[in-house]
């Protein structure tokens, strides 16, 4: 039987200089873990970071990837060693400082700076491909084990009047229930909002939300106060939730909605039944350069006029195919603005087309043509 491959001891900088030499190999590297909004990586000095990955690691940093830029690796899974060192590693990464004020929102309030010796497989994405958020990391360490975990306490960086090392309990109640459709079928993976019903002069009143489970059940923790409950309050109707803005029990405006007065420790349960969904409307588009060549991988999206600028139907843009075409999905009797643009490397210069207004019930050529005739400052709104 062939002996198990011994890990190569390397630094982050050595890997950065010659990633192809380490591709697919087991490596051992000592580095600091960088975690935060849309990042979970390892760093050593001024070298480029390496994306860190293992089962459950996605909870540390949000990640958005493009399928076309995701490396196609057909490699075996790595068995993660979940021992005492790994437990300390994760506990140190998850530890945080807690605001003493409910209104304080703190991203990246980590308690410790974590450094460890990490062993795992090094994956190199190759030219034009990468890992992590927006595929911006050429290399990835698929973790097998950790050792020599060091957790530097950062508590002195925080004002003790504003932050605590232990979680603060604020007064709260719970609004829960079940979201069902007109056929009484549960609606899983939907966002239900509880919105402050007392006007305070703010353009966007405070809100809290819960996500339904596979039975359509949701739970929303709220501070004591008066609330209304609704769906598609912040986001426009989408193929995932094809309903207009609706407030409980079944009204279209917040003023007409039922108000719930919530006290500390109070629990309120409701059954939120929706009427029939909106009628789907397909919107084919075609994107070309000024010379008529199709633009593959162009960004195209619908903006729902009723929800204001920058509201993207479905909450993410879509991309044209090799022929510069894509079919967007909206709904009948709703007004939209259609956008098309692309960012061209190496400097990511934006090229765009004039937007197209699609009024409720209006007909347009099929597909709707877009020519990327503007660039740079001409694309600013």
Could you explain how this protein is built, in words?
The chain contains 3 helices and 25 strands. It is mainly beta. It folds into 3 domains: 8-157, Beta Barrel (OB fold (Dihydrolipoamide Acetyltransferase, E2P)), CATH 2.40.50.140; 173-273, Immunoglobulin-like (Sandwich), CATH 2.60.40.1120; 280-379, Immunoglobulin-like (Sandwich), CATH 2.60.40. It is globular. The model has no long low-confidence stretch (mean pLDDT 90).
Low-confidence stretches: none
From the alpha carbons, calculate the radius of gyration and give it in angstroms.
25 Å
Strand percentage lies at 35-45%
Structural class: mainly beta
Shape type? globular
Helix content: under 10%
CATH superfamily of the largest domain, by name, is: Nucleic acid-binding proteins
Give the CATH topology of the largest domain.
Answer: OB fold (Dihydrolipoamide Acetyltransferase, E2P)
Q: Please write the CATH class name of the largest domain.
A: Mainly Beta
Q: What's the story with the biggest beta sheet?
A: 6 strands, antiparallel
Question: Which architecture name of the largest domain does CATH use?
Answer: Beta Barrel
Distance between the termini: 65 Å
Count of DSSP H/I helices: 3
The H-and-E topology, N to C, reads as: EHHEEEHEEEEEEEEEEEEEEEEEEEEE
Average pLDDT, all residues:
90
Number of discrete domains: 3
Compute the number of strand runs: 25
